[in-house]
Amino acid sequence: MHISTDIWIWIQALLTLAIFTFLYKDNPLFRMAEHLFVGLATGYGFVVVYKNAFYPNVWVPLFQEKQLIFIIPFVLGLMYLTSAFPKISYMIRWPMAVLLGIGSGLSIPLTIQTYIIEQSKSSILRPPYPNLIHWINALILFVGVISVLVYFYFSIPHDRPGVKQISKVGLFLLMLGFGASFGYTVMARFSLLVGRLDFLLNKWLGIRPF
Amino acid sequence: MSVRDFFIKLSKIDRKYIYLIILIGLIIPLVFPPNFPQKMSPQVKRVFEFIDTLPKGSYVILSADYDPSVAPEVHPMYKAVVKHCILRGIIPIGMTLGVQGAGLAVEAFTEAERVLGARRDTDYVFLGYQAGGAVVILGLGEDIKGVYKTDYFGTKTTEIYALKPVKNYKDIALVISFSGSSIPVTWAVYAYTKYGVKVAAAVTGVSAGDFYPYIQAGQFIGMLAGMKAAAEYEYAVNQILKERNIREKPSTDAIRMMDANSIGQLLIILFIIIGNIGYFLSRRRK
Amino acid sequence: MRHLFEKQIPLALVFIIGIIMTIQYFVPHPTSQNVYDTSLMWSRAISSMAYVMAIISFLRFHTKRLKNKNYAPYSLVAILSFTAMVLIGFIGGTAKDSLFQKIYENMMVPLQATTFSLLAFYMSSAAYRAFRIRGVEATVLMITAFIVIFGTTTIGNYVPKMNEIVEWIMAVPNLASKRGIIIGVGLGVVATSIKIILGIERNWVGG
Amino acid sequence: MILRVMLLFLFISPPKVFSPDGTGKKLTIVMNIPDTLRTQITTLNLLRECSDGKLDTLNILPFLKTYTDNELDYRKEYRYKILAYSNGNLIYESEWSEYARPTAKWFDKGKLPLFIVMMVFTIIMIFYIAQARANKPLYLRPIAGLEAVNEAIGRATEMGRPIIYINGLTGISDIATIAALNILSHVTKRAGQFETRIVVPCYDPVVYTIAREIVKEAYTTIGRPDLFNPDDVYFATDSQFGYAAHVAARMVREQSATNFFMGYYFAESLILSETGASTGAIQVAGTDSVAQLPFFVVTCDYTLIGEELYAASAYLSREPLLTGTIKAQDLAKLLLVIIMVLLSLLSLFNVNITLGLF
């Protein structure tokens, strides 16, 4: 067992342990690590956004390539600074309006195509299917999607005869889906935890498995 | 205290003890690896047996399209498949479409040199990184040595002994794309659908779900998904090493981590059972 | 007058830009392609400057907390680490082996990975505490989780057909439920986008 | 010897050139090289002559039957000629093709069905919004989650401990965040009547400024502007796990009686809801992030699933326009289900209609 002598490994180990202490209870060590994390993340964000987003997308085209059209997005972007002064902070709504307009405008056709059309298209029964299993799966998918949609139907009370059973099937499938994704994520989360513990045992404390 | 009270009390343990049990439950197998025998699941078996039954001297492309963030799950797969090919006299051609994969792939080949005494450019080839993604995949369909003028270490591909009989996908038995994203699908679309070379995927557990449709459509011959598949493959390769009584100790990261993972997951199942028994008994008492 | 700037113009902007961007999808003409490229360029430029608001709120929040005795040390740490990271990033550069990159790899990644790995603990206590057979839905949820958790362990491989069952659950019933939700959410997203463009949804201009 | 014979294949039929789509940038060239020659070709070139006189040579993959040239200009015309070589010597040369112009269309007919769907949905929306504006009665079935929201507020009032309300981890253009902000307005008004403190840590700076306005306005509408405490509605951080750790720690410190998780979430959802549950707080969640729903369903007292979040925001804010939107979505859902059933039934009798979409 030979403990690592690399300062960075020690820093990683101490920070890892500080976060793990939160499992016991909230304590100053955890709060220190939490605030360190928040500070570093915001600082990291500022540098990365400046270097990878602001500099190439605003500074270079406007001030180096002198494309004057960029004055408009630049001035709109400057309006965000008004959020520091409450009286004129309403001006952030101008750049927001541009972003919202572009975002909403782009999303309408794309969302209809990918979310609504594609998903329902692949649930429609399209025989012939190669074998019985494919038939059953296609039927379950077809009935399943429709019953989930009926569950999310708000214009008829759920206690109507036909609707009651279908939405029950829908809720059953929803719960089955949630259980499945919960179960599937357990493996992924545990691999992460095992990875952290393996780092502490192996890299930091140098305990070689016997 | 009757048995019932015991179970009710058992279902009300404080959260902190649960965390302690989990912590201990994971540390023990990491330090004292139980090395459970890993029985191969169907998807992994398809890939393993495909390689196992290839004739000596055939070629397999192993594309390390992953980065350090998914290394814990995907890297052990790459190392295991490299060793498996060399043990079967099959020549793995390493490459990567992502810059970050190169360093990891080199490490896998160095381990093969250490454990199996593999010789570069005779038992394996490592071509390194080439930018372009789909364009590279297409190019390999035409002329591998045209796309990769030199290998990762600078040797001219035309002079590499192992690459003499290789021109394009027609001389490649299988391509495996190791990735944490959807790059294997690009391989399936460009390499399999267009050139007919067989493709397999080696991916993280979480992203496995998105590949099932492609497997059903027959575009992948099989898939290695998550830490479990890595452990199964690693275990199978280590068995071959034992048969050949090769003394060098291979890395057993995936097996050790998967054993700890399995114990953790079994503990959760235990908690669900205990939680319910206690809940069930206490409800009946009211 | 102020009403004009505070509400009217933003709503007009969102309406005009929204309509143009929606129609642009259906027009293959190169000018529509240019409109699309310019809109992306502008949204990248503007959103890159939106981050300055995060800095302002962050600094305002933590400087205020410096006055409060029991929060002061923590907020000091936050501000100092923020300033240090910014200076290191701008002075030392963000190259592969820069101090900035070292701090990211050796401080931020472990902090994030460890916080992420807490989830394994929380899942265990959630499974223990909440997975109770309380009604049909909770039971269905629990049994499916049970099967999938067990199916994805090493021992799961020894139970015949276990892997096929897990794969089937993920590929069929789970897919049906996800599709149902996604279609519903899709309709919701389209409805909201239409409301924003037509100025019906006004919360973002203060209702 | 064979190669010399091949040389006879000179000046044979020109390639066919047409504009494949309306982008005004592309021309597709169909190369009808005889198959016998195909195997010998090592390099295949396309000569392109533009109406402005510019001449270019494009080297293309030898086995291609058609090639699509792009980045062209719809204002100019282009013509093409094929040159095929076998190990350096010319074995096939076609005549120049006719001049062709990449057509630039103003409407892509292929997307007409999608355009119709979009228009129909917008009309349905406007119709129901008009109905709502003329406050015609629009029936919406009761949602169990709503009683849970009001109950949860009542619990915090009884225990005299604060409510923590989170609007999710996405921006203002995300529908889940907008729904969350609508519900925040209702929760603040109701909590304000009993002077119950509400803490709103925000993840996104834009959402933070809007949330601040909404809380301030909610308090003024119930005649209690004094209750607004600017420190309780604040921007915490925009790092995913820094935020989760911060809010989780705050729940433990404040021992909040009620936690609301509305909006869109990522993997940090379980840290929030499980820590909240450990403090014994009542928790109501509402999200359309499919991956996180399982965790909320397991750890919260009540969870609004997907669209229930949108419907809840319509109910709670009693905004006729929101109710109108839910009715419009319902009608669209009904039409969609009908189409799915019809197309499925028809395809059972192998009549496969796609309406250009399905």
TrEMBL record, chain A:
Which keywords annotate this record?
Membrane, Transmembrane, Transmembrane helix
The keyword Membrane is annotated on this UniProt entry: yes
Which superkingdom, per the lineage? Answer: Bacteria
TM ranges: 7-24, 36-55, 67-85, 97-117, 132-154, 166-187
The protein here is known as Uncharacterized protein
Instruction: Give the taxonomic lineage as stored in the record.
Output: Bacteria, Bacteria division WOR-3
UniProtKB/TrEMBL annotation, chain B:
Q: Which residues cross the membrane?
A: 17-36, 263-281
Superkingdom, taxonomy of origin? Bacteria
Q: Which UniProt keywords are given for this protein, alphabetically ordered?
A: Membrane, Transmembrane, Transmembrane helix
Designated name of the protein: Uncharacterized protein
- Which species does the entry assign this protein to? candidate division WOR-3 bacterium
TrEMBL record, chain D:
Q: Which InterPro entries match?
A: DUF6754 (IPR046642)
Q: Which domain of life is it from?
A: Bacteria
Limits of the DUF6754 domain: 103-353
Q: Does the keyword Transmembrane apply?
A: yes
* Transmembrane spans: 112-130, 334-355
UniProt KW keywords: Membrane, Transmembrane, Transmembrane helix
In terms of Pfam families, this protein maps to:
DUF6754 (PF20539)
Stated name of the protein: DUF6754 domain-containing protein
